[in-house]
Amino acid sequence: MDMKTKIVSSCMVGLLGLGVAFGAAPAPRAEAGGVLVDVLGSAIMGTMYRDQVMGVYKTYNNTEKGRQEWFQQMKKQEGVDTDEYLNDRLDTIMTNVEAGIRAVDPTVDKKPYNYFISPNEDANAYCTIGHNVNVYRGIFNLLHTDDEIAVVLGHELGHGQKDHPIQGVKKSLNAAVLAEMANAATGGMASGAIDAMYTYTRNVHLSKPMEWEADNLAFDYITHTNYNPGATAAVWQKFLEKYGDMNVRWSDHPTCTQRRENYVKKLYDWSNKHVTDKNGVVYVNNKEFVTPSATSSMSSKERSYFVLGNLAAVYHKNKTAPEAYANGDTVMMGEQPIMTSTGSDASAEELAQKLNKIK
Question: Is the pLDDT of residue 142 over 50?
Protein backbone atom coordinates (compact mmCIF):
# COMPACT_ATOMS: atom_id res chain seq x y z
CA MET A 1 0.00 0.00 0.00
CA ASP A 2 1.59 3.31 -1.07
CA MET A 3 1.47 6.48 1.03
CA LYS A 4 -1.44 8.03 -0.88
CA THR A 5 -3.56 4.89 -0.50
CA LYS A 6 -2.80 4.74 3.24
CA ILE A 7 -3.89 8.34 3.70
CA VAL A 8 -7.04 7.81 1.64
CA SER A 9 -7.97 4.73 3.70
CA SER A 10 -7.36 6.63 6.90
CA CYS A 11 -9.58 9.49 5.73
CA MET A 12 -12.44 7.15 4.89
CA VAL A 13 -12.38 5.28 8.20
CA GLY A 14 -12.08 8.43 10.28
CA LEU A 15 -14.70 10.44 8.44
CA LEU A 16 -17.31 7.71 8.29
CA GLY A 17 -16.69 6.70 11.86
CA LEU A 18 -16.54 10.13 13.49
CA GLY A 19 -18.78 12.21 11.26
CA VAL A 20 -16.31 15.09 10.90
CA ALA A 21 -18.01 18.31 9.78
CA PHE A 22 -17.27 19.47 6.24
CA GLY A 23 -15.86 22.86 7.21
CA ALA A 24 -13.77 21.42 10.03
CA ALA A 25 -11.74 18.97 7.97
CA PRO A 26 -8.14 20.18 7.57
CA ALA A 27 -6.66 20.16 4.10
CA PRO A 28 -4.02 17.42 3.69
CA ARG A 29 -0.36 18.32 3.35
CA ALA A 30 1.18 18.44 -0.09
CA GLU A 31 3.23 15.31 0.61
CA ALA A 32 -0.03 13.30 0.83
CA GLY A 33 -0.18 13.24 -2.98
CA GLY A 34 -0.97 15.85 -5.58
CA VAL A 35 -4.30 14.40 -6.72
CA LEU A 36 -5.67 14.14 -3.19
CA VAL A 37 -4.60 17.70 -2.41
CA ASP A 38 -6.25 18.97 -5.58
CA VAL A 39 -9.51 17.11 -4.96
CA LEU A 40 -9.91 18.02 -1.31
CA GLY A 41 -8.65 21.52 -1.84
CA SER A 42 -11.17 22.14 -4.60
CA ALA A 43 -14.01 20.74 -2.52
CA ILE A 44 -13.24 22.97 0.42
CA MET A 45 -13.49 25.88 -1.98
CA GLY A 46 -16.90 24.90 -3.30
CA THR A 47 -19.70 22.39 -3.69
CA MET A 48 -18.77 20.61 -6.90
CA TYR A 49 -17.94 17.29 -5.25
CA ARG A 50 -20.90 17.43 -2.93
CA ASP A 51 -23.11 17.79 -6.01
CA GLN A 52 -21.26 14.93 -7.68
CA VAL A 53 -21.90 12.60 -4.75
CA MET A 54 -25.57 13.62 -4.57
CA GLY A 55 -25.80 12.80 -8.27
CA VAL A 56 -24.63 9.27 -7.52
CA TYR A 57 -27.12 8.92 -4.66
CA LYS A 58 -29.93 10.16 -6.90
CA THR A 59 -29.01 7.53 -9.48
CA TYR A 60 -29.39 4.84 -6.83
CA ASN A 61 -32.63 6.44 -5.65
CA ASN A 62 -34.38 7.22 -8.92
CA THR A 63 -33.25 4.83 -11.66
CA GLU A 64 -34.41 1.23 -11.85
CA LYS A 65 -30.87 -0.05 -12.36
CA GLY A 66 -29.62 1.99 -9.41
CA ARG A 67 -32.50 0.90 -7.16
CA GLN A 68 -31.82 -2.77 -7.90
CA GLU A 69 -28.09 -2.39 -7.29
CA TRP A 70 -28.83 -0.74 -3.93
CA PHE A 71 -31.26 -3.52 -3.06
CA GLN A 72 -28.64 -6.18 -3.79
CA GLN A 73 -26.17 -4.25 -1.64
CA MET A 74 -28.68 -4.26 1.23
CA LYS A 75 -29.12 -8.02 1.04
CA LYS A 76 -25.37 -8.54 0.79
CA GLN A 77 -24.67 -6.51 3.93
CA GLU A 78 -27.71 -7.47 6.02
CA GLY A 79 -28.28 -11.10 5.03
CA VAL A 80 -31.56 -12.67 3.90
CA ASP A 81 -33.97 -14.76 5.97
CA THR A 82 -35.73 -17.25 3.70
CA ASP A 83 -38.33 -18.45 6.23
CA GLU A 84 -41.27 -19.27 3.94
CA TYR A 85 -43.99 -18.57 6.52
CA LEU A 86 -42.63 -15.13 7.44
CA ASN A 87 -42.02 -14.17 3.82
CA ASP A 88 -45.57 -15.15 2.88
CA ARG A 89 -46.89 -13.00 5.73
CA LEU A 90 -44.73 -10.10 4.63
CA ASP A 91 -45.93 -10.42 1.02
CA THR A 92 -49.56 -10.20 2.18
CA ILE A 93 -48.96 -7.28 4.53
CA MET A 94 -46.99 -5.31 1.95
CA THR A 95 -49.69 -5.90 -0.66
CA ASN A 96 -52.37 -4.65 1.73
CA VAL A 97 -50.41 -1.61 2.92
CA GLU A 98 -49.53 -0.63 -0.64
CA ALA A 99 -53.25 -0.85 -1.50
CA GLY A 100 -53.94 1.50 1.42
CA ILE A 101 -51.32 3.92 0.10
CA ARG A 102 -52.76 3.70 -3.40
CA ALA A 103 -56.13 4.87 -2.09
CA VAL A 104 -54.61 8.21 -1.03
CA ASP A 105 -51.41 8.43 -3.08
CA PRO A 106 -51.43 6.73 -6.51
CA THR A 107 -47.77 7.63 -7.08
CA VAL A 108 -46.90 4.49 -5.09
CA ASP A 109 -46.91 2.58 -8.39
CA LYS A 110 -44.30 4.83 -10.01
CA LYS A 111 -41.47 3.35 -7.93
CA PRO A 112 -42.51 -0.09 -6.63
CA TYR A 113 -41.05 -1.18 -3.30
CA ASN A 114 -38.40 -3.86 -3.00
CA TYR A 115 -38.38 -5.62 0.36
CA PHE A 116 -36.89 -8.59 2.19
CA ILE A 117 -36.50 -10.04 5.68
CA SER A 118 -33.05 -10.01 7.25
CA PRO A 119 -32.11 -12.38 10.12
CA ASN A 120 -31.55 -9.52 12.58
CA GLU A 121 -33.38 -10.30 15.85
CA ASP A 122 -33.97 -6.63 16.74
CA ALA A 123 -37.58 -5.44 16.43
CA ASN A 124 -37.08 -2.99 13.59
CA ALA A 125 -37.55 -2.20 9.92
CA TYR A 126 -36.32 0.60 7.70
CA CYS A 127 -36.85 2.07 4.27
CA THR A 128 -33.76 3.39 2.54
CA ILE A 129 -33.16 5.13 -0.77
CA GLY A 130 -34.74 3.69 -3.89
CA HIS A 131 -37.86 2.48 -2.03
CA ASN A 132 -35.88 -0.47 -0.65
CA VAL A 133 -37.15 -1.94 2.62
CA ASN A 134 -35.46 -4.24 5.15
CA VAL A 135 -37.74 -5.91 7.70
CA TYR A 136 -35.91 -7.47 10.63
CA ARG A 137 -37.00 -10.95 11.67
CA GLY A 138 -37.26 -9.65 15.25
CA ILE A 139 -40.32 -7.55 14.41
CA PHE A 140 -42.30 -10.76 13.95
CA ASN A 141 -41.19 -11.97 17.38
CA LEU A 142 -42.28 -8.80 19.18
CA LEU A 143 -45.49 -8.03 17.29
CA HIS A 144 -47.93 -10.91 17.18
CA THR A 145 -50.56 -9.34 14.91
CA ASP A 146 -50.29 -8.49 11.23
CA ASP A 147 -52.20 -5.29 12.07
CA GLU A 148 -49.28 -3.96 14.13
CA ILE A 149 -46.67 -5.06 11.60
CA ALA A 150 -48.72 -3.24 8.95
CA VAL A 151 -48.46 -0.05 11.02
CA VAL A 152 -44.66 -0.37 11.17
CA LEU A 153 -44.51 -0.91 7.43
CA GLY A 154 -46.97 1.92 6.81
CA HIS A 155 -44.61 4.21 8.71
CA GLU A 156 -41.59 3.06 6.71
CA LEU A 157 -43.38 3.36 3.40
CA GLY A 158 -44.49 6.83 4.48
CA HIS A 159 -40.80 7.72 4.62
CA GLY A 160 -40.43 6.24 1.15
CA GLN A 161 -43.41 8.08 -0.34
CA LYS A 162 -42.01 11.41 0.82
CA ASP A 163 -38.42 10.52 -0.17
CA HIS A 164 -37.22 11.12 3.38
CA PRO A 165 -34.17 8.80 3.06
CA ILE A 166 -32.57 10.80 0.23
CA GLN A 167 -33.46 14.05 1.99
CA GLY A 168 -31.78 12.80 5.15
CA VAL A 169 -28.64 11.92 3.22
CA LYS A 170 -28.55 15.35 1.60
CA LYS A 171 -28.85 17.13 4.94
CA SER A 172 -26.06 15.15 6.56
CA LEU A 173 -23.77 14.61 3.61
CA ASN A 174 -20.63 16.42 4.77
CA ALA A 175 -18.69 13.38 5.95
CA ALA A 176 -19.89 11.34 2.99
CA VAL A 177 -18.64 14.01 0.58
CA LEU A 178 -15.14 13.81 1.96
CA ALA A 179 -15.17 10.02 1.99
CA GLU A 180 -16.28 9.88 -1.63
CA MET A 181 -13.64 12.43 -2.59
CA ALA A 182 -11.08 10.14 -1.04
CA ASN A 183 -12.42 7.40 -3.31
CA ALA A 184 -12.15 9.79 -6.24
CA ALA A 185 -8.50 10.42 -5.43
CA THR A 186 -7.70 6.75 -6.02
CA GLY A 187 -9.44 6.51 -9.35
CA GLY A 188 -12.94 7.90 -9.32
CA MET A 189 -16.33 6.49 -8.34
CA ALA A 190 -15.30 2.84 -8.32
CA SER A 191 -17.81 0.03 -7.92
CA GLY A 192 -16.68 -0.40 -4.31
CA ALA A 193 -17.98 3.08 -3.49
CA ILE A 194 -21.46 1.67 -2.93
CA ASP A 195 -20.18 -0.11 0.20
CA ALA A 196 -19.18 3.16 1.84
CA MET A 197 -22.27 4.98 0.59
CA TYR A 198 -24.61 2.29 1.90
CA THR A 199 -22.87 2.15 5.28
CA TYR A 200 -23.06 5.91 5.60
CA THR A 201 -26.74 5.99 4.62
CA ARG A 202 -27.61 3.29 7.19
CA ASN A 203 -26.27 5.59 9.91
CA VAL A 204 -28.16 8.69 8.80
CA HIS A 205 -31.03 9.54 11.16
CA LEU A 206 -34.12 11.31 9.90
CA SER A 207 -35.49 14.43 11.51
CA LYS A 208 -38.27 14.46 14.09
CA PRO A 209 -40.66 16.26 11.68
CA MET A 210 -40.05 13.45 9.18
CA GLU A 211 -40.87 10.87 11.86
CA TRP A 212 -44.13 12.64 12.69
CA GLU A 213 -45.03 12.89 9.01
CA ALA A 214 -44.43 9.17 8.50
CA ASP A 215 -46.55 8.37 11.58
CA ASN A 216 -49.43 10.47 10.30
CA LEU A 217 -49.18 8.97 6.84
CA ALA A 218 -49.28 5.48 8.35
CA PHE A 219 -52.63 6.33 9.93
CA ASP A 220 -54.02 7.45 6.57
CA TYR A 221 -52.77 4.27 4.93
CA ILE A 222 -54.02 1.86 7.62
CA THR A 223 -57.48 3.42 7.68
CA HIS A 224 -57.74 2.54 3.99
CA THR A 225 -57.10 -1.15 4.66
CA ASN A 226 -58.97 -3.83 6.59
CA TYR A 227 -56.43 -3.72 9.42
CA ASN A 228 -57.61 -2.54 12.82
CA PRO A 229 -56.77 1.19 13.00
CA GLY A 230 -56.32 0.84 16.76
CA ALA A 231 -53.10 -1.03 15.97
CA THR A 232 -51.54 2.38 15.30
CA ALA A 233 -51.68 3.13 19.04
CA ALA A 234 -51.29 -0.48 20.17
CA VAL A 235 -47.91 -0.91 18.47
CA TRP A 236 -46.43 2.00 20.42
CA GLN A 237 -47.85 0.62 23.65
CA LYS A 238 -46.03 -2.63 22.83
CA PHE A 239 -42.76 -0.79 22.14
CA LEU A 240 -43.22 1.27 25.31
CA GLU A 241 -43.61 -1.87 27.40
CA LYS A 242 -40.61 -3.52 25.75
CA TYR A 243 -38.17 -0.63 25.50
CA GLY A 244 -39.50 2.34 27.48
CA ASP A 245 -39.76 5.79 25.92
CA MET A 246 -37.12 5.30 23.26
CA ASN A 247 -36.22 8.92 22.60
CA VAL A 248 -33.57 8.39 25.29
CA ARG A 249 -31.82 6.29 22.65
CA TRP A 250 -32.97 8.20 19.55
CA SER A 251 -33.36 11.90 20.28
CA ASP A 252 -34.50 12.51 16.70
CA HIS A 253 -37.60 10.37 17.32
CA PRO A 254 -40.73 11.26 19.30
CA THR A 255 -41.25 9.12 22.41
CA CYS A 256 -43.40 6.01 22.32
CA THR A 257 -45.91 7.73 24.60
CA GLN A 258 -46.13 10.77 22.33
CA ARG A 259 -46.65 8.59 19.29
CA ARG A 260 -49.28 6.46 20.99
CA GLU A 261 -51.22 9.50 22.19
CA ASN A 262 -51.01 11.10 18.75
CA TYR A 263 -52.80 8.05 17.38
CA VAL A 264 -55.36 8.02 20.20
CA LYS A 265 -56.28 11.59 19.25
CA LYS A 266 -56.47 10.63 15.58
CA LEU A 267 -58.75 7.72 16.42
CA TYR A 268 -60.97 10.04 18.47
CA ASP A 269 -61.26 12.46 15.55
CA TRP A 270 -61.73 9.62 13.04
CA SER A 271 -64.60 8.25 15.16
CA ASN A 272 -66.34 11.62 14.85
CA LYS A 273 -65.36 12.24 18.47
CA HIS A 274 -67.33 9.35 19.94
CA VAL A 275 -64.62 7.04 21.35
CA THR A 276 -61.29 7.44 23.08
CA ASP A 277 -58.90 5.68 25.41
CA LYS A 278 -57.54 7.03 28.68
CA ASN A 279 -54.75 5.04 30.26
CA GLY A 280 -56.06 1.75 28.95
CA VAL A 281 -59.75 2.43 29.65
CA VAL A 282 -62.04 2.69 26.60
CA TYR A 283 -64.69 5.42 26.68
CA VAL A 284 -67.75 5.78 24.44
CA ASN A 285 -69.45 9.18 24.39
CA ASN A 286 -67.46 10.15 27.49
CA LYS A 287 -68.80 7.11 29.38
CA GLU A 288 -66.52 4.35 30.58
CA PHE A 289 -67.04 1.19 28.56
CA VAL A 290 -64.34 -1.36 29.33
CA THR A 291 -60.85 -2.08 30.62
CA PRO A 292 -59.94 -5.27 28.74
CA SER A 293 -58.12 -8.02 30.59
CA ALA A 294 -54.62 -8.99 29.55
CA THR A 295 -53.99 -12.06 27.41
CA SER A 296 -50.92 -14.25 27.03
CA SER A 297 -49.65 -12.07 24.18
CA MET A 298 -51.10 -8.62 24.99
CA SER A 299 -51.25 -6.36 28.00
CA SER A 300 -54.57 -4.86 29.02
CA LYS A 301 -53.52 -1.49 27.61
CA GLU A 302 -52.34 -2.82 24.27
CA ARG A 303 -55.59 -4.72 23.89
CA SER A 304 -57.64 -1.64 24.77
CA TYR A 305 -56.39 0.13 21.65
CA PHE A 306 -57.68 -2.70 19.45
CA VAL A 307 -61.11 -2.31 21.08
CA LEU A 308 -60.82 1.44 20.50
CA GLY A 309 -60.00 0.87 16.83
CA ASN A 310 -63.01 -1.40 16.29
CA LEU A 311 -65.36 1.10 17.92
CA ALA A 312 -63.82 3.98 15.99
CA ALA A 313 -64.51 2.11 12.74
CA VAL A 314 -68.20 1.80 13.68
CA TYR A 315 -68.60 5.50 14.41
CA HIS A 316 -66.56 6.50 11.37
CA LYS A 317 -68.87 4.56 9.04
CA ASN A 318 -72.23 5.17 10.72
CA LYS A 319 -74.02 8.34 11.71
CA THR A 320 -76.09 6.24 14.10
CA ALA A 321 -74.29 3.39 15.79
CA PRO A 322 -75.99 0.01 15.28
CA GLU A 323 -77.19 -2.09 18.20
CA ALA A 324 -74.56 -4.07 20.04
CA TYR A 325 -75.15 -7.79 20.51
CA ALA A 326 -73.31 -10.94 21.56
CA ASN A 327 -72.27 -13.48 18.99
CA GLY A 328 -70.87 -16.26 21.14
CA ASP A 329 -68.06 -14.64 23.14
CA THR A 330 -67.72 -11.71 20.74
CA VAL A 331 -69.40 -8.32 21.08
CA MET A 332 -70.64 -7.09 17.71
CA MET A 333 -72.08 -3.84 16.36
CA GLY A 334 -73.67 -4.57 13.02
CA GLU A 335 -71.03 -6.54 11.09
CA GLN A 336 -68.15 -5.07 13.11
CA PRO A 337 -66.58 -7.20 15.86
CA ILE A 338 -65.75 -5.04 18.89
CA MET A 339 -64.04 -7.42 21.30
CA THR A 340 -64.02 -11.05 22.32
CA SER A 341 -64.65 -11.71 26.00
CA THR A 342 -61.73 -13.61 27.53
CA GLY A 343 -59.96 -13.98 30.85
CA SER A 344 -61.52 -11.71 33.49
CA ASP A 345 -63.62 -9.73 30.96
CA ALA A 346 -67.34 -9.45 31.54
CA SER A 347 -69.40 -11.71 29.30
CA ALA A 348 -70.17 -10.62 25.75
CA GLU A 349 -73.84 -10.26 26.72
CA GLU A 350 -72.99 -7.93 29.62
CA LEU A 351 -70.63 -5.86 27.50
CA ALA A 352 -73.19 -5.56 24.70
CA GLN A 353 -75.86 -4.37 27.17
CA LYS A 354 -73.46 -1.80 28.62
CA LEU A 355 -72.48 -0.59 25.18
CA ASN A 356 -76.10 -0.13 24.14
CA LYS A 357 -76.69 2.13 27.14
CA ILE A 358 -73.89 4.52 26.19
CA LYS A 359 -73.66 4.26 22.39
Answer: yes
